[in-house]
Amino acid sequence: MMDETVNLSFCQQLPKVELHAHLNGSISPKTMAELTEKKTKSQNSSLETTVDAIRRWNESVKKREKRILNECFETFKHIHKVVTDVEAVKMVTQDVIREFAEDGVRYLELRSTPRDIPEHGMTKKLYIDAVLKGIEMCEAEGLNIIVKFLPSIDRRMSVEAAGEVVKLALEYNQTTDSKVVGLDLSGDPSKGNMENIVPLLKRARNSGLKLAIHAAERENMNSDSRILLGTPPDRIGHGTFLHTEVGGQLELVDIVERHQIPIEMCLTSNFIGGTVPVLENHHLRFWHRKSHPCVICTDDKGVFSTTLSEEYLLAATTFGMSRRDLWSLSEGAIDHVFASEEVKGLLHRVWKDTRIRLGR
Is 217 a catalytic residue? Predict the structure, then answer.
């Protein structure tokens, strides 16, 4: 009889799609240690405070201690103090891609906010160039993974800065052999006026870019969510508080269902970030029961000390999912990637070949 046990080994063998991976949040402790050592030597200055803050965060996360969402964003600020130049961006891009590939991820969409850091010679354009160079270098290594990039608008940005990101995303979408396939909206959900940003998002969408939009990450944001869902997005990041059981509104659920907008689910991130107090009540349960498109993701595998395989295992153990359920979620995610139909077809063949090889 074939073993139907869902364990980590099975989840690692399962070919996977990762659609919600913030580049800087995905940096592993190992890469962060190497980078801070290089920075300290090259700058002849101490990053002791930053290193200590990141270390204490990692220790807390490994114990699966709950934090609050604001602490997560503070941790990102410390990481940004280390990833400040082109070489650092290339290095972390390569390491993050390698680690996802080692975990059985066969298609990856990275997202990151291009930043201007004049004192380190960094511009938004050079930032994107560095990410794309990192992807290119991994392709040259022959890694068994397809990687695309989504520039991110941070909610704290001015309209002018956000407009620059949109302009660059459109430019690169047309000139990089489809490496830049969409646009992400993310950042602290308590910041920014989304009524000012939505016209930019609609312009990007009307010009051919796909939209992945963080929405309903916190309670009592129904008005904000209604504005963002009006674009409408091609995928929703988190969507934690959309449905009525957690204070959302039926109107929001109807919009999501009517447009069949896939939701990117990040279990460990939501639990440690404190937006989902009990995993058994994670909104994956609500939407999966409706047979709504759901994609299991990591969000920030470095910050939350997880892998996509572990997230699949967590979904299985929390909600009693079978191997068949996980295969369905994994292969179903292919339909929601922002790449071409040709790439989707290639991925479906990879899943089919893997199923045959594993005797599924």
Answer: yes
